[in-house]
Amino acid sequence: MGVQGFQEYLEKRCPGAAVPVDLLKLARTVGRQPPHHHHHYHHPHHPSSLPPPPPPARILVDADSGLQRLYGGYQTDWVCGGEWNAMLGYLAALSQACLYQGGLELVVVFNGTLGKDRWPEWARRAQGQRQTAQLIVNHVGSKATPPPRAWFLPPACLSHCVRLAMFRFRVRVSGLMPSSRGIVDCDVRLANFLRFYI
User: Fold this and answer.
1) Is the dihedral of CA 28, 105, 191, 1 positive or negative?
2) Amino acid 109: pLDDT
3) For residue 39, how far is the Cα from the chain centroid?
4) What is the pLDDT of residue 195?
5) Is 166:67 a contact under the CB 8 Å cutoff?
6) Mean pLDDT value across the chain
7) How far apart are CA 158 and CA 166, in angstroms?
8) CA–CA gap between residue 30 and residue 55 (Å, rounded)
9) Could you report how far apart the first and last alpha carbons of the chain are, in Å?
10) Which of 49, 98, 131, 170 gets the most CB atoms within 10 Å of its CB?
11) Would you say 159 and 67 are in contact if contact means Cβ atoms under 8 Å apart?
C-alpha cells in the first residue's frame, strides 16, 4: 500500500480522519514550541553556547498524486498552451508562501520509474487519454470553444516540467526508484526518507 492507497483507505474507513488543515497556522504552532533536546549543548569552554535552531517544519508532497494541482489546476486556455507561465507563477507563489511566509520547507517526491506490475495500468490510462485527446480535438474543431472541464488533460511532460520548476525555485526534490523487489521497496525507501529528513 503506497501513500495514495493509505489515503484512500483512510477516506473510506475513517471519514472523519481527513480534515482541512491550515498549514501556516500549524507551522507557527510548531515554531513556538520549545525544542526537545535529549542532551545539553553546553561545552565546558563555552558556557553560554546556545543549542542550534530547530529545523523548519517540512511538508512532504507526493507529486504524482497531486500533479494536476501542482500544475495550477484547470485553466480555460490550457488547450492553447498559455498555461506554462501560469504554472510557473503558481509554483513560485507556493514555494514563497511556504518558505518566506510560513517558515515551512517544501519537499516534493516524484515516483522515479514505473514498475513492471503497473504497466497494464499505464497502458489503460494512456488509451483513455488518447480517446480524451480525440474528443478535445473534435470539440475544438467543430465548436471553436474550450472543451468541458471534465476533459482536462495535462501535458505528457508535466512531471518533468514541474520537477524543473521546483529546482528553479530551490524546492527540495526527491525521486523514488522501485527496485527488483517492486513497489514495496519503494514504500520502504519513502519511509526511510521520512525518518531521515522529517
Assistant:
1) positive
2) 86
3) 35
4) 63
5) no
6) 76
7) 12
8) 10
9) 21
10) 98
11) yes
Task: Provide the pLDDT confidence category of residue 47 given band limits of 50, 70 and 90.
Answer: low
Half-sphere exposure of 131 (CA within 13 A, CB side): 6
Q: Residue 141: which residues within 8 A CB-CB, separation 6 or more?
A: none
CA–CA–CA angle 156, 77, 144 (5° rounding)? 105
- The pTM (predicted TM-score) of the whole model is 0.66
Give Cα separations from 182 to 20, 34, 65, 179, 193 (angstroms). 33, 41, 19, 5, 17
pLDDT recorded at residue 106? 87
SS3 helix, strand, coil % of the chain, rounded to 5?
A: 50, 10, 35
Q: Return the C-alpha cell found at 67.
A: 500533479
Tens of pLDDT, residues 61-109: 888 888 888 887 666 666 666 578 888 998 999 898 888 777 788 888 8
| Cell (9 digits) for 11 | 477516506
Q: Residue 101 is placed in which grid cell? A: 511566509
3-state secondary structure of 22: coil
Cell numbers found for residue 34: 520549545
Placement of cell 516534493 in the chain? 108
Which position has the higher pLDDT, 129 or 195? 129
Q: With 80 as the cut, is the pLDDT of residue 166 above it?
A: yes
Q: The cell 514498475 sits on which residue?
A: 115
